[in-house]
Amino acid sequence: MDTDSRVVLNVGGIRHETYNHVLKKIPATRLSRLSVNLTNYDPILNEYFFDRHPEAFESILNYYRTGKLHYPTDICGPLFEEELDYWGIDSNQVEPCCWMTYTLFRDTQETLQIVDRMDLEKRVVSFTEEENAKRFGWENDFYNGTMSFWQKLKPKMWSLFNETNTSPLAKVTSTISAILVFASIGTFAGKTMEFARVPQLYSNSDTSKISLLPGLEAVDGAKYPALVFKDSSSFVGAVFYIDLVCNAWFSFEMLNRILFCPNLAKFIRSPINLIEVVAISSFVVEFLLEQVMKLGFFTVLDTDNTRDVIEFFAIARILRLFSIAQYYTPFKILTETFRASWRVLLLILFFIILFVVLFSSSVYVAERLVHNPENSFSNVFKGMWWALVALCSVGYGDVIPVTFAGKIVGCFVALGSVLATAFPVPVIVTNFTNLYVHMRARNKLPKERRLVLQLHELNPSAAASSSNGAGNPTFKTIRSTAQQLGQPRDPSVLNA
């Protein structure tokens, strides 16, 4: 009977024999529709030839025989899935014992996509004029040869201030910016030191500002001679001028980025750029306010408290570190780790909120069960503060339970901190390790990959011979095509 006859399958040079009825077990697949009319059939050898991966086909043929699909551990996952797609088999039919192998391949592919999106190490050191024209939307002008001087200058200036790997001068500008960022943060911190402030004093000769020290009273209208009072304070000149130079450079840099950016709307929406604008604005407002008050206007604002409010916005200068960190590879990896672990982070947040509400209410009730004159939990909100600090393993000791029942609740809080923080952390560490390992592996790969010719790129005779069942182009075809394209020949391939 035809259904019981044997079939010979030559896959990648390795012959496999089976029965027709075995291949009919899984319908709507490539092997279930074999016919002698196919170009793969060789009537002389009485076999079907497929130029596919031979080791992967062993697992596929075993799927026909046993009805169970197992993933081989010695074959790359995407390659095996490509083979399954060629043979018309659904990759989701994998057996439960191979789920870990299956998901490992999927996770690896997702990690590689994240690494490609991060663009950790730029593969192109500098862009060609055609690539710059495509980035800025000037393809038509480039191909028509009508690009103006501005269109040629704009990509170069943008690369100078934003793409550090494009030229040595771009690396110099990025280095200057990094140094001035640290200098600006240093001046911000230095302003809080006492030696950086010069007090503005006045004496009691100015009767409009005379006031008595606390606890003292004037007797018979007598005045206290030579009393000196602090009206306000100003910064040391060196600190101000350093800050002025830093912000002048940042303003110049920001102006150039706005002027030469490819997409202004996307540039404005960037959080890093918004932080830079706030930081520069805080310095400008503070400087203008100093000058206005020196001229005698708005004397009601001439207090240290007002300056402290204005300097609050100068905290944005510290956030400038993010502008440096975006070019630092480990920071990118850490950012992508949190993005990939957002489900775990939400789980941690849920557990913390749950435990805080539960334990704060419990300790509030527990401390009131017996007479307790030292009760620190006068309300539930203090219990929330204590529970949050205890769950994070900090334990300030400002609020503590003193009763036996309250200490029992404290024991459960200590155990809950392990569940809330320790268990999800390994998932985040694993994501970070995967990204870091793949990043390092990618950096070790060659920047230029060898060109692999496709079938349609060969000459018509080679394509015709392949379509007629030959399966592979000839040695002479490969040699002549490689010479025409100017590609280096691989002796190991040509001599095979």
UniProtKB/TrEMBL annotation:
Which segments constitute the BTB domain? 5-104
* Location in the cell: Membrane
Q: Name one GO cellular component term.
A: presynaptic membrane
One biological process term from GO is: protein homooligomerization
Q: Which domain of life is it from?
A: Eukaryota
Q: What is its main location?
A: membrane
Whether Iron counts among this entry's keywords is no
Coiled-coil spans in chain? none
Q: For this protein, what is any one GO molecular function term?
A: delayed rectifier potassium channel activity
- Where is the chain membrane-spanning? 233-252, 272-289, 309-328, 340-365, 385-406, 412-437
Q: What is the membrane topology noted in the UniProt record heading this document?
A: Multi-pass membrane protein
Does the UniProt entry include the keyword Membrane? yes
Keywords attached to this entry: Ion channel, Ion transport, Membrane, Potassium, Potassium channel, Potassium transport, Transmembrane, Transmembrane helix, Transport, Voltage-gated channel
Q: Fetch the PANTHER family from UniProt.
A: POTASSIUM VOLTAGE-GATED CHANNEL PROTEIN SHAW, VOLTAGE-GATED POTASSIUM CHANNEL
Q: What is this protein called?
A: BTB domain-containing protein
List the taxonomic lineage. Answer: Eukaryota, Metazoa, Ecdysozoa, Nematoda, Chromadorea
